[in-house]
Amino acid sequence: MSRRIRASGTLTQSSRGWLLTTADDAVWVLQSETEIDQPIGSIVSVEGEAIGYDRLRLEWIGAAAASQP
Questions:
Q1: Buried-exposed string 10-45: b where 16+ CB fall within 10 A, e elsewhere
Q2: What is the pLDDT, as a whole number, of residue 68?
Q3: Cα(7)–Cα(28) distance, rounded to whole angstroms?
Q4: Could you tell me the domains of the chain?
Q5: Could you give the CA distance from residue 68 to residue 1 in angstroms, rounded to a whole number?
Q6: What does the pLDDT look like over 15-65, one tens digit per residue?
Q7: 52 vs 27: CA distance, rounded Å
Q8: What pTM, to 2 d.p., does this model score?
């Protein structure tokens, strides 16, 4: 069973691949059919389908919107 996820956090890379670490320290392993074209360390938003415990099959990734004052 899978579920749809939308999350934001810091993009990093490890031996497991691309990772997204959220503000509450959740870590998602990002699985993408295309190249991820965002700099390491950038704050991004992602949408996709959770598969397994900590893997997210990406449908979309982009720069996170700036928070409002």
A1: ebeeeeeebbbeeeeeeebbbebeeebeeeeeeebe
A2: 47
A3: 9
A4: 3-63 (2.40.50.140)
A5: 36
A6: 989 999 999 999 999 999 999 999 999 999 999 999 989 999 999 999 988
A7: 13
A8: 0.87
